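ingest -> validate -> predict -> emit
validate: passed (alphabet ok, no gaps, 246 aa)
predict: started
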Amino acid sequence: MDYESLLELVKKRRSIRRFKPEPIPDEYIDKIIEAARWAPSGFNTQPWEFVIVRDKVLKDNIVKIIDEYRINQFDRMELSREKWQGKPWRRWPKDPMDYSNAPVFILLLGDTRTKVGLPMSAWYNINKRESIFDSSLASTFLYMHLTATALGLASQWTTAVQVPVVSCLLKEVLGIPRHFVTYDMMVLGYPALTPKQKFLRDKKEIVHYDYCGEDDFRTEEEVKDFIRRTRNWALSAPHHRQTEQE
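emit:
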């Protein structure tokens, strides 16, 4: 693959929150997992496990657990935000094309027992140990999303599975042993909607060369201004509703 093709793939990868209910071929799931298992991991510990959920009853239970968390905790906690941040985050409105219609959920698990494969200098440094573990899982999760995009599929990051109460209940529903962590869940299917253009920082603002002083980076007020703008972008009505595909 040349650079331009890679860049096009990266630009095309977007979080989609509305799916068509059409099933996905088994070979597509296999290709996603095949690519994911080649991801880099700290000292090749390969801490990942993948739980593929197609069963409607199980998917409905997963959606219910996540929705209850969002209603009881996420929305209430968001009201405590600082006022300068703008409007509070809201749950995606329920409609016939929300993510519960997606044909496949893939839950990415991390096996905490693999941490013993790290060098002792990392094992006894809790920050480094957890950082290596999390980075390894992040790598394979990104590979999953890029592969899904290459196959013409839509995918969504569902980070609520990391929340303790959600993780605990999901493990019970899916029979997952306690020594696994629920890192993230990919919602997978064919896109029902097209997201609007992504809001990005200017490249000149984020690249620095050699020695950098404080003046080379954003001020506190500039960071706050960006946060306000990017929250407005993420919360804007067109982004929530997105645009139906032709």
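The longest helix spans residues 126-150.
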